[in-house]
Amino acid sequence: MRIKAVVFLFCCSFLYSQTIESDTLSLVEISWEYERYSVGHYKKKISLQQTIGIPSLSNALEQSLAIPFKNYGFGMLSTIAFRGLAAAHTGLFWEGLPLNSSMNGNYDYNLLQSSESIIFRSGGGSSVFGSGAIGGSIHLLKDFSNEQGWSFKHNQMVGSFGTYLQNTRLYFTGENQRWVAGGGFFSSNNDYTYIGFDGSENRVQNAQLFQQQFFLDAEQKIGKHSLLDIHGFWLKAERHLPASMTEAVSYRKQEDENQRFSIAWKWKKHFFQQKVQAAYFMEKFDYKEDFRLMESSFSKADNYFLKYDAEFEPNDAFSLQTSHIYNHTNAMGDNFGNPTQNQSFHRLSGYFKPTSNWEFSGTIQHLFHSDFNGATTFDFGVKWSNNSHSISSNFTNNYRVPTINDQFWRPGGNPDLLPEKGWMHELNYEFKQNLQKFSVQSRLTTFYGEVNDWILWLPTSFGFFSPINIQQVQTLGLQSEIEVTYKANENMLFHIRGNYNFTETTNMQTRQSLAYIPKHQANVSLGSDWNKWKLNILYQFVGFRYTTTDETLFIPSYQLTHLQLHHSSKLDKMELAYGVMVQNIFNEAYFGMQYYPMPLRYFMFNLNIIL
Amino acid sequence: MKKKFLWLSAILLMVISCNPDGNDNSPGTYAGGYFVLNEGPFGSGTGTITYYNSTFSSTTQNVYELVNGEPLGNIVQSAFIVGDLMYIVVNNANKIVVVNRYTMQKISEITSGLSNPRYCIVVNNKVYTTNWGTLSSSTDDKVTVHQANDGVLITSISVPEGPERIALMGDKAYVLVKGVLNQNNKLLRINLSNNTIENTFTIGWQPDSFYVRNNILTILCSGKFTYDSSWNIIPQEDAQIWRLQSWSSSPVKINDFSDTTSQIELAYDLSYWNGQHYMRIGGKVMRLPDGAPSTTGAVEFLNENFYRLQSINGLIIGLDAGNFTSNGQAKIYNSSGTLLHTLTTGIIPTEVVYNF
Questions:
Q1: I need a labelling partner for A260 at 20 to 30 A (CA). Which of A65, A568, B159, B161 fits?
Q2: Whose CA is closest to B221, among B285, B286, B279, B300?
């Protein structure tokens, strides 16, 4: 019934088609192509380079949205736990295609330091983006320069325990083409001090890391109506993995390599645009239990994508988009042989804005998969807004197909697993107001969701883990955010920003919480810009987290305070900025995961040059 | 300091909440009862020790941390009692923690040369410990020999892949070589006077458990298996019981479970009480008279699928690891199969040690 109503509304809007958009393609500012089909989802653009500390995705999301992460130490594996769900339940996307590993479903959010900005989108995204995005999705954005001609950006960081980070980008923007090429590295001796069980100071051992990445984004106009779009990314990371405090020693080492390449042809005329895209993603993973020995566990997946999108957009008030993705995955690993998978997604989305106050979006998608029964998913969103207030709501149903590891890992892999299925509902209230020198923005989100047939790896009495569809998991909570800015005069600005999130995730069989999910997480950021100086103080609170599934053991809560002082100046065309960051000022001894200590107070100095 | 206090108070809070009886820690608190060694959660967690008093009327969780203010370490594997001391082998922490078994006070740690330690015995002021070495290597397995009083490493004896339990009988040590990545079928006799391997016997596949009675070592070999494509266990060879008299030159097979030709039986956790052998077979607790010929089949004693099984003082104790991520259970039966007590353990209970 609801679908019919939406379709009816779409049809009506043809009659109202009035304005005619420019029918030629131009190199315009970045817009996010799924914005319109995400009504009722909370969306936020986050700049990674404004993070205090290493500009990783995990730091950026912890600091700007108080999202919990499971951290195994500084620069080590960091996986997201948005809305109390597992790492594989938040999707990470690049050029509209999934980056979550086809082997383990996760993405390590400490592996990306060179991105400029992202869009965070809360709520289910299976119908728009495919398998996995149940709690939310994250979309890496491109970063072209808006200025004509050449420009250059360099960021250098030096910090405690032998930490170096460097990112360099070269931009060109012309009449018919624009591109950006860049690269950087992140390295650390990572032998930071922690407090042992007996109160003594110890140093982390075997945690040194080195990662480097390069990328290229380019767009070339071809004729009046079309555009060629090329993107490439390469990453290599070598990390030694430290022992937990309850282990004696570790000689573990992990090497990651990622390559991705995408080429697309876009065409636009009148109300219609289409895009044909081909992409190749390679993920390689090499794990050594003892780096001094030859033996290692190797796995690699080649992912091939073909994507066709078409969009009909007669005016600002109405559009339809259809998308068809075909994906072939060919994996190879010491622990799972040589499995292949084929899947395809077929999607139709609509957007409708009948009046200036009301917006609607709807999506329906079907998945075909070589190993599993297909799934049909929906996304419905509605939003009412005026100048100051908006209320929006969204309902999605979602799925996640078992990964290659889930199915084929030796020993333990379970080929009889069912895909996880679930749904997610959210309600958002947003308020913004500008009052002379003050501006206020705030948001309150409540959500409720379920995941059925949750895939969980459990130890077996034979000494290895095996995944089963075990749990029905319910998650509910509240996310809130407020930002107040006071502009005293042209040279002075103050801001206060805060988040508070409440999450309760329950295994419905045992009625107990999932492990490692903090019920309460909050942060407060206080900042001031004064002439060329900028001061920022960030306070983070992460509530206690159970480490067992029967709520008997837990990691205590922790509070961190970070400080950033920054000076920027302009010399001719060159912008020079430098600053100091003090992380964990009050020397809080805390754990990312149980018995994995995180750093005490440490320092980072940074230098930015923009030409 | 403040942080440490917070941390400790959090632990205390946990312990207290599990210990409504509020046992104090005066010397002798742990005399006469039973310790349950809990492996602890996989990954980064710590193993713990649960204590039951002699009548099983009180339970104290996490006794080591309660007394010493520090966790034991990752994967508590086994323990050996000698004199006033208990030697606790902590597998992933590569250490043996030595405690006073009546107070749980830590005395010392042995770490030198240990690599994936599994089981130990203490004899003649020397600690003999089986070590797997690096899991991915099948050539660095060893038995380490330490001085018991100061933990100095005396020597390491190189052994075949997967040395597991170690038995003491007479003036010899016997190592059950079960295998790790590859299944093994060896029994080693170690001469304690010169720390060398005197004999290497080939016995049944995967020597798993033993008991020593009247100078006779009785060993249960679990049998051999492989996995099918869905990682189900496919048994290939029956379990076997072997016996070695301290005065004889080689072990003898006394039962090969060939009573059922249609079914290959894998057996684990042998113990002896009152003329009966107790063990786990096919997800049940089975009983077989000592000395029964192969043609006599084991009979069901309890229809319970335990993670570990032991018999101590005429009690049959089954350890249930539950979902492996939360506290398990110890079920205590008498020898007629009546359930006497069901008690909470820590995470993944693996062994009960009687603190006589």
A1: A65
A2: B279
Residues 59-88 of B with CB under 8 A from A: 69-74
Q: B162 with B178: CB under 8 angstroms?
A: yes
Query: Is the minimum CB–CB distance between B229 and chain A shorter than 8 Å?
Result: yes
Which residue from A minimizes the CA distance to B140?
Answer: A293
Q: Please choose, from the candidates A276, A269, A266, A376, the residue with its C-alpha nearest in 3D space to the C-alpha of residue A323.
A: A276
- Chain B 97-136, residues with CB within 8 Å of chain A CB atoms: 111, 114, 134-136
Q: pTM value?
A: 0.85
In chain A (611 residues long), the average pLDDT of successive 10-residue segments reads 36 33 44 84 88 89 92 91 91 92 90 82 88 90 87 94 94 92 94 91 94 94 91 95 88 94 92 94 92 87 95 92 95 89 94 95 94 91 94 94 89 88 94 91 95 84 78 92 92 94 92 90 94 94 89 90 93 90 95 92 94 88
Question: Taking every pair of C-alpha atoms in chain A, what is the biggest distance, in angstroms?
Answer: 76
> In terms of residues, how long is chain B?
356
Residue B46: which of A596, A599, A79 has the closest Cα? A596
> Choosing among B6, B325, B327, B345, which should be mutated to test the A contact, i.e. which has the most A CBs within 10 A?
B325
Is residue A321 within a helix (H) or strand (E), and if so which, with residue range? strand A318-333
Alpha carbon distance A497, B149 (integer Å): 60
CB hemisphere CA count around A380 (13 angstroms)? 10
Residue B246 DSSP class: T
First to last CA, chain A: 57
DSSP-assigned beta bridge partners for residue A194: A202
Q: Does B349 touch chain A (CB under 8 A)?
A: no
